[in-house]
Amino acid sequence: xxxxxxxxxxxxxxxxxxxxxxxxxxxxxxxxxxxxxxxxxxxxxxxxxxxxxxxxxxxxxxxxxxxxxxxxxxxxxxxxxxxxxxxxxxxxxxxxxxxxxxxxxxxxxxxxxxxxxxxxxxxxxxxxxxxxxxxxxxxxxxxxxxxxxxxxxxxxxxxxxxxxxxxxxxxxxxxxxxxxxxxxxxxxxxxxxxxxxxxxxxxxxxxxxxxxxxxxxxxxxxxxxxxxxxxxxxxxxxxxxxxxxxxxxxxxxxxxxxxxxxxxxxxxxxxxxxxxxxxxxxxxxxxxxxxxxxxxxxxxxxxxxxxxxxxxxxxxxxxxxxxxxxxxxxxxxxxxxxxxxxxxxxxxxxxxxxxxxxxxxxxxxx
Length: 366
What we know:
Blueprint: H1 2-34, H2 36-41, H3 43-67, E1 71-77, E2 87-91, H4 98-106, E3 116-121, H5 128-135, E4 139-141, H6 148-162, E5 170-173, H7 180-194, H8 208-217, E6 243-250, H9 259-264, E7 271-280, H10 288-312, E8 326-331, H11 336-365
Parallel strand pairs: 1-7, 2-5, 2-6, 3-4, 3-5
Antiparallel strand pairs: 1-8, 6-7
């Protein structure tokens, strides 16, 4: 009987997951098309509306995870103090659950989640999320030594063209370049050959994308660049990055969850812990080698944080202050009324879009 009950629960959750994906995706795409004239003629207004629509989409993700009993415990620097500032978020990467987790962590923090620019592997371009990301000017990056230099140039051009014009605030980056389980062995081999720390819970990060972001959007410093003066060609009124936010995700016993399992609910409900530490961009080294050592030091810190977490089930308390107020370990709380309103908005939107746009259009065509 219990097995049957669980199967029924999984089936109902999957149906809800599938249907909410449909009306969220369809509603966003249709609004993007209907508002296209606004995007061309009054782009500032369009991007303000788009940020609300994208935040609304992430209400679906909040529902999937929260209703399954997956909570989030935050500790470390209180990043709500910089939610309206320009920032790049660096996160360790363990599984497909990392992306929705970042979404729900940022969701309660004002309009932060609606004004993000995601930097993701190019393979996601061919998903429904990739289509939405293409519309909203996220960046798809290709991995590999043969394309690394070209990707830096493309990312630089993309940031100059879209970061400020699309009214973005936060940039989301996974510096490890892939899942821990896929990159750990190669990272450890590279570390042994080159005298770097051999890490178990994270991998040595790649500096390329972060260096390009800082070179292009830094706070006016003249960062060293292999692509020349990246400040040239920039809009001088363009907003500059002010913060680098280091986010560390800890899954219970080091067993990274997966997105589908959380959405359907066949993974045991549990809390996921996240640790934040923020650094002003003005404090980040400018020289490439110094920046590399700084970034490696951050990942050595992540290694120690995660080692403590896997032994004790919590991240260690931060007794020494950094650049932001410290936050005691606390459960993330969501405005469920706002979540429900966003669901209703997209459901009503799809109904109106079909009734007054698509149905008449199909009638004319067929």
